[in-house]
Amino acid sequence: MPLNIDGTIDGTFQLIGGNFTTAGEASTQLKLKLSELGVDETIIRRATIATFEAEMNVIIYAAAGWLHYYITSRSITIKIADMGPGIENIELAMQEGYSTAPDWVREMGWGAGMGLPNMKKNSDLFKIDSVVGEGTTVEMVINFP
Amino acid sequence: MTLSKITEILEATVIVRPADLEDLNIRSACSADLMSDVLYYHSIDSLLITGLTQINVIRTAEIAGTKAIVFVLNKKPDERTVELAGQKKIPLLSTPFCMYTASGKLYQAGLRSSLND
Amino acid sequence: MKLSDIVKELSLEIKTYKDGLQNNVTGAYVSDLLSDVMANSKEGNIWITLQTHMNIVAVASLKGIKGIVIVSNRQIPEETLKKAEDEKITITTTSMPAFEIAGKIYLLLK
């Protein structure tokens, strides 16, 4: 059922690399926004899980990044762009269990090589672009039923 | 299984127990330290048994739809983590048992795994 | 209980070092954090984890852990398998998540 939204509702969050304390705030605020709009629970969960994984990737790997979201009556689009090291081999990075995270990140419960697969799993459309030395951009679309 | 039954089985200390929350009915459990695991195999009304206590465990729980968290080996989270759990109304427990024994005791009592939905 | 009995009872899939199935398992430990396993696991434990990073083999070897159960059907990187074979660590896999397999092993070892 399409939502009763005129045009597009959008917003932006700035993400700071290395800041584990506030990591996840953007995703929880997005969750709140989607709840207010009356989006289906299952859709909210998929969208926020995908967003949270993307947010954590910026926190873990990049210096900084931005998260933009666009909500229409039919879907939500989430775009994350970071100023990070970039991904050398995207195909490899998409494999479950593959990770370049350092040990200390693994000891914090992240870097298990499930982030990108998890984003893809929860999105209807998943796009990733990366330039080594410049950064990575991820775009995810989740359609409303 | 009710949260008070779980508390009893695990001989757990209650760290956060939102006042206006009635005794929760927990349908399944997930034992994990890797947060992507919790997010990947998320399931509603589940209990998370974990050895990690930092604040993003609470955010993971909120996003994954986890109902309550048990920290193993008597681990206690810091004040900010406790505060956030209170705000999000996620009960926190701490058990003296390790993850294996805690899982074993709850499994023996009839609790089952979260299924990937 | 022998590792081979647990493998048989719970239909675990053997990935490395079959000779290790003769080893005796006296307990189990569940954790995805290497530092935690280093600090708290005991010799003779079977280690249940979702972690597939190559370093699990080094930790198992150092702690005298003979068998590892990788849960939730996770794929294991080639380098981890090779290292386990070299270090004589038996890696097995299951489709069950950690809670479930821990529960079943708990009942077996009780």
Write structural notes for this entry.
The complex is a heterotrimer of chains A (145), B (117) and C (110). Chain A is of the alpha+beta class and 145 residues long. Chain A has helices spanning 25-36, 41-61, 90-93, 103-107, 115-122, and strands at residues 9-16, 64-71, 75-83, 125-131, 135-143. The longest helix of chain A has 21 residues, at 41-61. In chain B, strands 1-5-4-3-2 form a five-stranded mixed sheet, sandwiched between helices. The longest helix of chain B is centred in the middle third of the chain and has 10 residues, at 55-64. Chain C is α/β, with parallel strands linked by helices and 110 residues long. Helix content of chain C is 41%, strand content 17%. Chain C has five helices and five strands; from the N terminus they run αββαβαβαβα. Chain C has helices at 3-9, 34-40, 55-63, 78-87, 98-109, and strands at residues 13-14, 27-30, 45-49, 67-70, 90-93. The longest helix of chain C has 12 residues, at 98-109. The A-C interface holds A 95-99, 103, 106-107, 109, 112-113 and C 32-35, 50-53, 55, 74-77.
Give the N-to-C terminal Cα separation of chain A: 6 Å
- Mean residue pLDDT of chain A: 94
CATH class of chain B: Alpha Beta
CATH structural architecture of chain A = 2-Layer Sandwich
Biggest β-sheet of chain A, characterized?
A: 5 strands, antiparallel
SSE succession of chain A: EHHEEHHHEE
What class do helices, strands and sheet pairing of chain A give? alpha+beta
The total number of structural domains of chain B is: 1
Strand content of chain A: 25-35%
Percent helix of chain A, as a range, is 25-40%
Q: Which strand order do you get reading across the main beta sheet of chain A?
A: 1-2-3-5-4
CATH architectural label of chain B: 3-Layer(aba) Sandwich
Helix content of chain B: 25-40%
- Number of separate structural domains of chain A: 1
CATH fold label of chain B: Udp-n-acetylmuramoylalanyl-d-glutamate--2,6- Diaminopimelate Ligase, Chain: A, domain 1
Spans of chain B with pLDDT under 50 lasting ≥5 residues? none
Oligomer: heterotrimer
- Rg value of chain B: 12 Å
Element order, helices and strands of chain B? HEEHEHEHEH
Main beta sheet strand tally, sense and closure of chain B = 5 strands, mixed
